[in-house]
Amino acid sequence: MRFIDRFFTYLVVLVALCACNRTPDTPLKMFNVDSLVQCSRLNQNIEIKFSFDDSDIGKHISYSAVESVDWITAIDTSTQGSIIATIEENNGDTRKGIITLSASGYKSAQIEIKQYGAPAEEATHTLMFYFFGTSLNRYFKGNIEDAMTAIETGILGVNNRVIYFRQESSSEGYIAELCYDMDSGVCNECILESDITIEGHPIAPSFMTTIINKMATYAPAKRYGMVLAGHGQAWITRETLNGASGVAVSSCREPLFEPAFGAETTRAFGESNVQVNPSEIAEGINNSIADIDYILFDACFMSNIETIYELRNSTNYIIASPCEIMGKGFPYERTLPHLFKDDGNTTDYAAAAESYYLYYRDEYNSSSRCGSIAVYDCNEVESLKDATKNVVKSAQSIDDVSTLQTYEGKNPHYFYDFGEWANRVATDSNALKDFNTQLDKTVIAKYTLDSFYSAYGSYGTYPINTEVYSGVTTSAPSSVLNSYWVKTEWYKSVWEL
Asked: Residue 184 has what pLDDT?
């Protein structure tokens, strides 16, 4: 009996000593493994590679993997650092399953297996690139390559598509799709139609409608986005350029927008016969079969109220810059994932715009750069027109317009900050309050660096007063081209009281 009592005493002490030596707060180690694996609808074996904590390199660690769904029919863990999962063919919709990876001393890791189903006849979201002009072709090629890099991360899934029109010459173009092969993880350019004849202007309404209809027919979708990429000059039309300068359309460059010698390439005017007319863009889109949910302008100066007003009924959202855009354009590798959110059902417009700003702030390898961008809710533009009209009714003149924020290097200037201008001319405090409230509803996101680059005038870098930056410009205070500006729909709707 005494022996038994003594035994139990020793046992209690031993347990206590062991408890004292335990380290219950020691954190569990972590597996290095992807949390998401995507695969095609086919019957297949997929390999999921992982690694253990650095402290266990060279050690043989026993581990297990357990599936949560019956369409993952087998799991092989016989090879260290690898899981081979056998996946059953999927004849239905996209589906998801979980593989749980476990080992002693490790926190369990959950790996989501996303298997795509049969592609639908109609995509959820088709993004159309419309590249116009040829002088930026080397940059367009880079844009396409960046888009392909983004697509190879699996952002399109099985039910979203990217298609583009591009000029090969002044008279010919082609349509291609960026096709993602889920099995290989590779994106390829697939030519859908070549030798498309360009008669006259590449973004003339009828031709633009034809190209949009072709792309929508090749890649039908529930919703469409469009990237318009090329040279831009705000609301200033071909007729304005040629009428003001007296130079024929066929000339190489118009003196009105002549870049300074030695200036870096931007996406402002630089090519004959491809100048942007906003009213023609609106007509080309409105007459097409595609309902364009948003337009991303990869072209200079297109964030101006005159252009936005022309396009208010052509799309729901617009992403554009009030100043020049460098030749490289948007960083599509970073931008595209934000355009295809929620499996293509939604778009994060603010994040897409921010990706542009952050790239030029943090990554673009040049001190000469532009990073100003804004997002418009086009459903609010008509109300902004009404609010502006009330400001104009009692507006005062500005003695010295040179004190206003501008967004190009010309002298005299063409484009002034719209918000700052309204706040300087307003005399009715209630009208101004309503204007600022409506401007915030219309410009739903805006980002800017504290300077911008301009290839015009004395080319170089100019400051931006970030305190007054509204993300949108107007030519209202400009003394240049006034006889043409008064012909814009914006002027007619606001000033012709």
From this structure: 81
